[in-house]
Amino acid sequence: MDSSEYLKYVTERVVSYMDSPSQTEEEEEKQNKKLSREPWLTRWFGVAPMGLMMWWGNRTDKKKRTHPEVRSASIDDQLSIK
User: Fold this and answer.
1) Do residues 28 and 54 both lie within one domain?
2) Which of 48, 37, 1 is nearest to 10 (CA)?
3) Does residue 44 carry a pLDDT above 80?
4) CB neighbours of 1 closer than 8 A, spacing ≥ 6?
5) Statement to judge: residues 44 and 82 lie in one domain
6) pTM reported for the whole predicted model
């Protein structure tokens, strides 16, 4: 490589470096891209795990709502418990 070609190459590299966005702009773009992505569970396995999690959460909520004490009590007792 001759000296004029080398000087041209170095000049192009410096100019491209100067024209590139600053580090903070790159970090903001990266952060926005991460926020816009869907959750990894959905990306890897589709909608089925989400449905399973919703079903399981609903199942445990029902257990919490139907305590053995509350089930055996009458309606008047239930109102006085709350």
Assistant:
1) no
2) 1
3) yes
4) 9
5) yes
6) 0.30
